[in-house]
Amino acid sequence: xxxxxxxxEIEVWQKARKLTKRIYAFSRSGEFxxxxxxxxxxxxxxxxxxxxxxxxxxxxxxxxxVQFLATAKGSAAEVRSQLYVAxxxxxxDENAFAEVFGLATETxxxxxxxxxxxxxxxxxxxxxxxx
Length: 131
Fold this sequence. Notes:
The chain is an all-alpha fold.
């Protein structure tokens, strides 16, 4: 696995950004746009994925990064759960649901893979490197 200097270089952050873009796109129209509670919650959850990956990376410690990744993974589960609500309320059709749900699942799986890698890599993070 390649190292990354900036969180923007992390493939799973890029995937989370794509997911967030899709969430915003489909939640801004139709009946979904009128459901302020669900719209706000699913948007916050998707933004949380990106934000926790970025914040964890910039903490510079591998243990802290893994902890923030765990929170990001939880937010991805929250998005998936909220997508079921959107489907059940007929805010999206089966095809849109499948696309975005797949993207959220792929994001969660990638986060899990990065967590696993970091836990077993022996990398401690840049804050542990001598000056």
